[in-house]
C-alpha cells in the first residue's frame, strides 16, 4: 500500500496528488473496524506552571462509537455513539447524557478524532479545513482548522499524526494552550 | 300574523344591533368573585388574566425516544421562530452569548455566594483545587474559559441554579418525563406566551401556534398533549358551548313540537316567541347598561331563566274566554300575571344580593326580562294577534283530564309529600354544600389529571398555593421576597412545602446587591488571599488577574433592576417575569410553593411568620371560603326574597290565607327539590341556589293561576276574583300543565348535560317543576262536578 501511495504522489500534480493521497489515507483508516489503544495526554494551559498529565484507553468501533476512558489521575469516561454523548465521572458520581448537536465545541473535538478513525473525510470537512502535510515515509500529519468562527474562539488548530493506519497523536491548540495526546496500540 | 312576524323581525334586529354594539364577553374575569382581600383580589385577577394564563405545558408521546426528541427540538425551534412566545423551555434551552456575557459580568451582584467569607484564602483554597481537578477533565475547555476569571464558581453556580431542573431528564436536546413501567416515553416542553396576560382569543392563537409548530415537525404517529390555563379555558368554553348548543336546538325543537301538538297553531309559536325575545333584548340591554358588558354565561343562563316567560303567552291564550277579545282577557289576567312576574322578579333578589358579580348580572338580566315579558304579553300581544284569530289548546286526552281532576283537592297528599320531603331533609341533613370547585369545572377529569401529571413531571408549580408579596415598589417586593426566602426555610424543614419559586431567586433587591458589593474585598486583600490559597498549586502568579479585575469592577457596578435584567438577560428574565406583576404604579410579587400537602397547616405556619407585606394564599381554600361567604349571603338574601314574595302575594291577593295557599306549593316544591337532591347525593352550590330561585319563580305562576279559582270563595274584593269562572275550570290545569311540560322539556334536557353547573340546574328545576305542578294541583280546590 505504501508503494501505491508513493506512486500516486509521483504521478499527479501537487494539489490533485494531495487530494488523492488524502482519500487513500482515509480508505486505509476506514479499513480498521475495531481499535483498542492506550493514550497519554498532557494539557498545557498558560495559567499553569506545568502541564496536567492524563492517561487511559481509547476504543473505537465502526461505524461511529468512540470511547475515551481516562483512568488516571481521575476516572472519567466519554462515550460517543451516533449523535449522543455520555459523560461519566464515577469518582464524582456524575453521569450526563447530551446530544452532540447541543454542544458544538465538544462536537468539533469529537469529530476530529472520530472522523479520522472512521476515515470519513466528508465528516471531517463538515467541521474543518483539512490538509495533509509533512509526509515522511509512512508517517502522516493532518492539519484541521475549524470552519466555524464560534469554534475557533476555543480551538484554533488540531494536528492529528499517524503512522500507516495507526493514529499516534492528537494535538489540540486553543486558548493559548495545547493538549497533546499520544496514542499507541494497547490492550 | 303579519304584525306578529313584523314584531319578531323588529325584536330580532334590535337584539342583533345590541349584540353587535355590546358583544357578549366570553372570558371569566368579570364573572367570578373578586376576592375577599386586596391580596386575594390581586391573585384571582392574576390567575385569570395575568401571566399564569400564558403558560402552556406540552407532552409528546407515541413514538420512540429518538423520534420524540427530534419532534421536541423541531417543535421548540418552530415555537421560538414564531415570535409568539416569550419563553420556550425544552432540553435544547441555551443562553445566548450576549446574555451569558451579561450574567457573567453581573455574577457577583447576582450570586448568593457573594459574602465576605467566600473571598478568604481558606474558602478559596478548595475552589482552586476543584478548578485544577476540573482542568484535568473533559470539562477543561469550559473551565479554562470561566475558571480563572471566576474561581469561586459564582457564575456556573448561578447557571446551574437557574437552568438545571434536575428533576427533568434531559437527553438529545429534549426533556423526558421519568421512565415508568408500562408507559411509552414522553418528551416535555413548556412555553410562555408574550405579554402579561392573555384573553381567550390570544390563548387560542397560542395553542394553535403550538399545534402548527408540532405539525410542521411531521409528527407521524406521535401525539401532542397540551395543557395549561388557556387550554382549560378553551376546553371549558367548548364544553359549555357544545352543551348549550345541543340544549338550545333540542329544547327549541321539542318545545316547538309540543306546543304545536297542543295548539296546532303556528301563530301560537310566534306569540310565544315575541315575549321571550322581548325579554331577552330587555334583559341584555339592562345588563349591558348597568355593567357595560354582558357575559356569555349571563346570556345563556339568563335566557334559560327567561324560559319562564313562555308561560305568560300560553296562559293568556288558553285562559281567554270564548266571548272575550284578547285585550279583554289580557286586562282580566293582568293583575295575576303582574303579581306572578313581580314575585318571580322579587325571588331573584338573592342573586342581586349575593355580591357575586356573575350572579348579580344574571339576576339583573332575568329580572328585567321577566317584567318585560309580562308587559309584552299583556300589552303587546293583543295588538299583534288578529282579532279573529282563535288560538286554543286542544282538549287534553281524557285520562289526563281525569287524573288531573282526581288530583285536585288532595291536600293530604300534598302535605304528606311535603312532610316526607322534610323528613328526608332532616334525616340526611340536607344536600351537602358544594366545596370543591373542581367538581364544578366543566373540564373533563382526564384533562385535569393530565395537567397535574405534566406539572409534576416538569416541576412546574401547580399555581395553587402561593405567597403574594406586596404591593409596593419593585425594590420593596424583592426585599420582602428575600426575607420570605430566609423565613421559609424552617417550614421547608418541617415538610410543609418542598420549595418556593421566589422573584428574588432570579433578581436580588438593590439593597442586597449593594450589600454584596460591600462584601467584595479590595484588590490588595483579594490578591493576598489568592496568593496564599494557591500556595503549592501549579497556578502562575498572573493566572487570576481576570478574577481580581472582575471583583474590582463589580464593586462599583450600578445595581440591576427588573427592566435592566430583562434587557440583558431575556432567557432568565422569562423565569422572573411571571413572578412579578405590575398594576398601575404598584408591584406585586408571586411565589408559588411546590410540594404542599396540607395547605391549611402551611397557612397557619405562614401567618405565624408574621412578615409584613407577605401573605400566603391557597387558591382552593380561599375560593372555598369565598364561596361559603357568598353562599351564606345568598342564602340570607334568598330568605329575604322569600319573605318579600310571600308579602307580595299576600298584598296582591289581599289575604293571609290566600297568600299562604299560593305560597305553600312554592315552598313545597323547593323542599321536595332539595330532598331529591339530597337523595341523589348531589352537592349543592350557588348555581343550585339560583336554580331554586328560578324554580320558585315558575312555581309562582302555577300556584297563582291554579289558585285564582279559590278566590271565588274568598272575599269578593280579591283582585283576580273576577278572573275565575266555572266555565274555564278545565282550561286552567290544562294550561298550567302545558306550561309545566314545556319547562320540563327544557330543564329535563339540561339535566342530561355533562357540564356540572348545567346538569345541577336542570335536575333541580325539572324535579321542582314537577313537584310544584303536582302540589299546586293537589292544594287547589277540588274540581266542581258539573
Verbal overview:
- The complex is a heterodimer of chains A (187) and B (786).
- Chain A has 187 residues and is α+β, with helices and mostly antiparallel strands.
- Chain A has five helices and eleven strands, in the order ααββββββααββαβββ.
- Chain A has one domain: outer membrane lipoprotein receptor (LolB), chain A (Clam).
- By secondary structure, chain B is α+β, with helices and mostly antiparallel strands.
- Chain B has a domain at 2-23 and 233-439 and 623-779.
- Helices cover 63% and strands 8% of the residues of chain B.
- The two termini of chain B are 37 Å apart.
- In chain B, 49% of the residues are buried.
- The model of chain B is unreliable at 710-729 (pLDDT under 50).
- The interface between A and B is medium-sized, with 33 and 25 residues.
The tally of beta strands of chain B, per DSSP, is: 11
State the distance separating the first and last CA atoms of chain A: 26 Å
Quaternary state of this entry equals heterodimer
Q: How many strands appear in the DSSP assignment of chain A?
A: 11
Reading off the top of the CATH hierarchy, the class of chain A is best stated as Mainly Beta
Annotation keywords:
heterodimer, A: about 190 residues, alpha+beta, outer membrane lipoprotein receptor (LolB), chain A, eleven-stranded antiparallel beta sheet, globular, B: about 775 residues, six-stranded antiparallel beta sheet, five-stranded antiparallel beta sheet
Topology:
The complex is a heterodimer of chains A (187) and B (786).
Chain A (H helix, E strand, L loop, with lengths): L1 H10 L2 H17 L3 E11 L7 E10 L3 E8 L3 E6 L2 E6 L4 E6 L4 H15 L2 H7 E9 L2 E8 L2 H4 L4 E7 L2 E9 L2 E9 L2
Helix pairs in contact in A: 1-2, 3-4
Chain B lengths: L1 H20 L16 H12 L5 E7 L3 H18 L2 E5 L7 H9 L1 H4 L10 H16 L3 H7 L7 H10 L5 E3 L2 E3 L9 E8 L6 H17 L6 E5 L1 H35 L2 H26 L4 H10 L5 H9 L6 H22 L1 H6 L2 H28 L13 H10 L3 H18 L8 H4 L4 H14 L6 E8 L1 H14 L1 H5 L5 E2 L2 H4 L3 H10 L3 H11 L11 H10 L7 H7 L1 H7 L3 E4 L2 E9 L4 H11 L4 E5 H35 L2 H24 L6 H22 L23 H20 L5 H24 L7
Amino acid at each position: 500500500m505504501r508503494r501505491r501511495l508513493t506512486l500516486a504522489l509521483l504521478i499527479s500534480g501537487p494539489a490533485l496528488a494531495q487530494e488523492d493521497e488524502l482519500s487513500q489515507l482515509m480508505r486505509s483508516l476506514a479499513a480498521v473496524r475495531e481499535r483498542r489503544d492506550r493514550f497519554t495526554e498532557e494539557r498545557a494551559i498558560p495559567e499553569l506552571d506545568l502541564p496536567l498529565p492524563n492517561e487511559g484507553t481509547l476504543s473505537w468501533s465502526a461505524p461511529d462509537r468512540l470511547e475515551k476512558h481516562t483512568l488516571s489521575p481521575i476516572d472519567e469516561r466519554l462515550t460517543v455513539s451516533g449523535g449522543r454523548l455520555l459523560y461519566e465521572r464515577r469518582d464524582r458520581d456524575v453521569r450526563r447524557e447530551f446530544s452532540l448537536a447541543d454542544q458544538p465545541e465538544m462536537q468539533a473535538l469529537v469529530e476530529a478524532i472520530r472522523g479520522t478513525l472512521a476515515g470519513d473525510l466528508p465528516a471531517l470537512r463538515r467541521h474543518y479545513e483539512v490538509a495533509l502535510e509533512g509526509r515522511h515515509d509512512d508517517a502522516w500529519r493532518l492539519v484541521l482548522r475549524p470552519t466555524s468562527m464560534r469554534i475557533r474562539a476555543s480551538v484554533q488548530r488540531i494536528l492529528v499524526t499517524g503512522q500507516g493506519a495507526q493514529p499516534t497523536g492528537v494535538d489540540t491548540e486553543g486558548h493559548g494552550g495545547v493538549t497533546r495526546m499520544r496514542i499507541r496500540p494497547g490492550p | 300574523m303579519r304584525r306578529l312576524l313584523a314584531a319578531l323581525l323588529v325584536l330580532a334586529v334590535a337584539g342583533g344591533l345590541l349584540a353587535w354594539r355590546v358583544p357578549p364577553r366570553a372570558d371569566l374575569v368579570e364573572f367570578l368573585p373578586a376576592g375577599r382581600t386586596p391580596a386575594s383580589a390581586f391573585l384571582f385577577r392574576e390567575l385569570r388574566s395575568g401571566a399564569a394564563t400564558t403558560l402552556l405545558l406540552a407532552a409528546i408521546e407515541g413514538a420512540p425516544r429518538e423520534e420524540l426528541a427530534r419532534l421536541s427540538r423541531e417543535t421548540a425551534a418552530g415555537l421560538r421562530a414564531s415570535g409568539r412566545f416569550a419563553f420556550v423551555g425544552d432540553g435544547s434551552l441555551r443562553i445566548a452569548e450576549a446574555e451569558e456575557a451579561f450574567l457573567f459580568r453581573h455574577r457577583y451582584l447576582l450570586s448568593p455566594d457573594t459574602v465576605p467569607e467566600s473571598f478568604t484564602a481558606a474558602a478559596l483554597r478548595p475552589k482552586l483545587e476543584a478548578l485544577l481537578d476540573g482542568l484535568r477533565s473533559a470539562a477543561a475547555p469550559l473551565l479554562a474559559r470561566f475558571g480563572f476569571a471566576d474561581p469561586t464558581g459564582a457564575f456556573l453556580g448561578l447557571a446551574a441554579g437557574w437552568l438545571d431542573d434536575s428533576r427533568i431528564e434531559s437527553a438529545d436536546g429534549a426533556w423526558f418525563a421519568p421512565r415508568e413501567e408500562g408507559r411509552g416515553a414522553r418528551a416535555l416542553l413548556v412555553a410562555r406566551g408574550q405579554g402579561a396576560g392573555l384573553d381567550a382569543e390570544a390563548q387560542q392563537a397560542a395553542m394553535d401556534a403550538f399545534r402548527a409548530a408540532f405539525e410542521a415537525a411531521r409528527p407521524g404517529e406521535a401525539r401532542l398533549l397540551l395543557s395549561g390555563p388557556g387550554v382549560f379555558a378553551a376546553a371549558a368554553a367548548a364544553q359549555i358551548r357544545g352543551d348549550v348548543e345541543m340544549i338550545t336546538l333540542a329544547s327549541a325543537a321539542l318545545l316547538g313540537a309540543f306546543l304545536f301538538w297542543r295548539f296546532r297553531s303556528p301563530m301560537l309559536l310566534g306569540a310565544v316567541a315575541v315575549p321571550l325575545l322581548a325579554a331577552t333584548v330587555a334583559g341584555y340591554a339592562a345588563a349591558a347598561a348597568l355593567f357595560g358588558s354582558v357575559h356569555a354565561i349571563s346570556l345563556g343562563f339568563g335566557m334559560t331563566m327567561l324560559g319562564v316567560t313562555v308561560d305568560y303567552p300560553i296562559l293568556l291564550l288558553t285562559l281567554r274566554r270564548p266571548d272575550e277579545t284578547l285585550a279583554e282577557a289580557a286586562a282580566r289576567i293582568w293583575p295575576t300575571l303582574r303579581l306572578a312576574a313581580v314575585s318571580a322578579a322579587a325571588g331573584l333578589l338573592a342573586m342581586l344580593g349575593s355580591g357575586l358579580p356573575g350572579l348579580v348580572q344574571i339576576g339583573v338580566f332575568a329580572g328585567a326580562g321577566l317584567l318585560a315579558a309580562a308587559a309584552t304579553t299583556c300589552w303587546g300581544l293583543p295588538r299583534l294577534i288578529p282579532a279573529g284569530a282563535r288560538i286554543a289548546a286542544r282538549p287534553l286526552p281524557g285520562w289526563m283530564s281525569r287524573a288531573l281532576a282526581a288530583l285536585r283537592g288532595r291536600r293530604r297528599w300534598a302535605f304528606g309529600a311535603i312532610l316526607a320531603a322534610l323528613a328526608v331533609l332532616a334525616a340526611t341533613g340536607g344536600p351537602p354544600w358544594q366545596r370543591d370547585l373542581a367538581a364544578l369545572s366543566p373540564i373533563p377529569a382526564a384533562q385535569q389529571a393530565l395537567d397535574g401529571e405534566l406539572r409534576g413531571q416538569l416541576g412546574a408549580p401547580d399555581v395553587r398555593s402561593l405567597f403574594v408579596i406586596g404591593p409596593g415598589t419593585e425594590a420593596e417586593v424583592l426585599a420582602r421576597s428575600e426575607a420570605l426566602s430566609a423565613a421559609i426555610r424552617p417550614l421547608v424543614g418541617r415538610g410543609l412545602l418542598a420549595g418556593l419559586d421566589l422573584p428574588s431567586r432570579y433578581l436580588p433587591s438593590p439593597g442586597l446587591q449593594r450589600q454584596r458589593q460591600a462584601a467584595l474585598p479590595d484588590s490588595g486583600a483579594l490578591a493576598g488571599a489568592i496568593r496564599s490559597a494557591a500556595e503549592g498549586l501549579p497556578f502562575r502568579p498572573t493566572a487570576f488577574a481576570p478574577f481580581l479585575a472582575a471583583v474590582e469592577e463589580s464593586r462599583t457596578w450600578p445595581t440591576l433592576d427588573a427592566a435592566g435584567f430583562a434587557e440583558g438577560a431575556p432567557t432568565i428574565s422569562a423565569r422572573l417575569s411571571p413572578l412579578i406583576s405590575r398594576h398601575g404604579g404598584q408591584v406585586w410579587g408571586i411565589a408559588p410553593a411546590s410540594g404542599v400537602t396540607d395547605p391549611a397547616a402551611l397557612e397557619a405556619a405562614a401567618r405565624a411568620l408574621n412578615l409584613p407585606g407577605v401573605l400566603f394564599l391557597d387558591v382552593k381554600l380561599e375560593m372555598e371560603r369565598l364561596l361559603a361567604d357568598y353562599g351564606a349571603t345568598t342564602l340570607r338574601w334568598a330568605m329575604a326574597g322569600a319573605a318579600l314574595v310571600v308579602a307580595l302575594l299576600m298584598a296582591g291577593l289581599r289575604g293571609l290565607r290566600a297568600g299562604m295557599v299560593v305560597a305553600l306549593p312554592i315552598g313545597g316544591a323547593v323542599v321536595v327539590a332539595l330532598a331529591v337532591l339530597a337523595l341523589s347525593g348531589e352537592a349543592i352550590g350557588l348555581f343550585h341556589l339560583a336554580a331554586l330561585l328560578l324554580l320558585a319563580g315558575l312555581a309562582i305562576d302555577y300556584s297563582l293561576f291554579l289558585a285564582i279559582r279559590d278566590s271565588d270563595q274568598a272575599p269578593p274584593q280579591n283582585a283576580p276574583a273576577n278572573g275565575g269562572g266555572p266555565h274555564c275550570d278545565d282550561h286552567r290545569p290544562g294550561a298550567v300543565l302545558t306550561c309545566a311540560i314545556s319547562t320540563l322539556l327544557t330543564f329535563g334536557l339540561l339535566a342530561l348535560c355533562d357540564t356540572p353547573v348545567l346538569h345541577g340546574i336542570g335536575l333541580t328545576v325539572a324535579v321542582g317543576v314537577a313537584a310544584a305542578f303536582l302540589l299546586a294541583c293537589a292544594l287547589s280546590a277540588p274540581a266542581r262536578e258539573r
